[in-house]
Specification:
With 124 residues, the protein is an all-alpha fold. Helices cover 65% and strands 0% of the residues. The chain is built from four helices and no strands.
Length: 124
């Protein structure tokens, strides 16, 4: 059987085998919305802190620039809500995305529940 003699032994290392080409680097992962989630959390915390301050100090303090501050807080609540909704599309850092969503929705609901009524009472 001369044909079997020409085959290489499977236990011997290969000789004259060219190295393989390096595979391409993996693409940038999609769904990495950590920055969006962090911004949603930070803006949500600012909105909640403002409303806690507003409820606790509203009977004592007179704020001269209340209207502009309240409009800014409403804008932050909308930003937090929108970014919280966007964090639902995250494919990475799911826990952070869930925290961003909860923070965004909580800030928006709190801004509606407390902000509209307190804003109306301060404006009158």
């Amino acid at each position: 059987m001369p044909a079997d003699d020409e085959l290489p032994d499977s236990l011997e290392p290969g000789q004259n085998v060219p190295p393989r080409d390096e595979p391409p680097a993996p693409p940038t992962p999609r769904g990495d919305l950590r920055a969006v989630s962090i911004i949603a959390i930070v803006t949500g915390v600012i909105v909640v802190a403002w409303h806690i301050f507003l409820v606790s100090v509203s009977a004592v303090a007179e704020l001269d620039q209340f209207l502009w501050i309240q409009i800014g807080i409403w804008a932050l609540a909308v930003v937090s809500f929108v970014l919280g909704i966007l964090s639902l599309n995250a494919r990475m850092a799911r826990e952070l995305a869930a925290a961003g969503f909860i923070s965004g929705v909580a800030a928006f609901l709190l801004s509606i529940a407390i902000g509209l009524f307190s804003g109306a009472s301060f404006l009158t």
